[in-house]
Input
Amino acid sequence: MLEFSTLDFVLISCICYLCGLGTGLSLCAKYKETFLRSISNEDLTNLGRYNHQNYMPPPETIMGVPTAPTQEVLKIEIPK
Output
């Protein structure tokens, strides 16, 4: 049976971590154009146009009448 020392375990863990990091970075570098194209400014503009500019609030909120300001005075007492 093989026995692993602490140093062996740490070295294998570091190698696995670096391989995973390298794989992730290489995939990001390979598909960089796809990632950047999927969130381009044109897409963000279209998203904002369809979600916000075509929305018209109901007529009740457009024809609202402002109320007169109240003359109440707010007193705040600080306990001593």
User: Anything to note?
Assistant: The two ends are 78 Å apart (CA to CA).
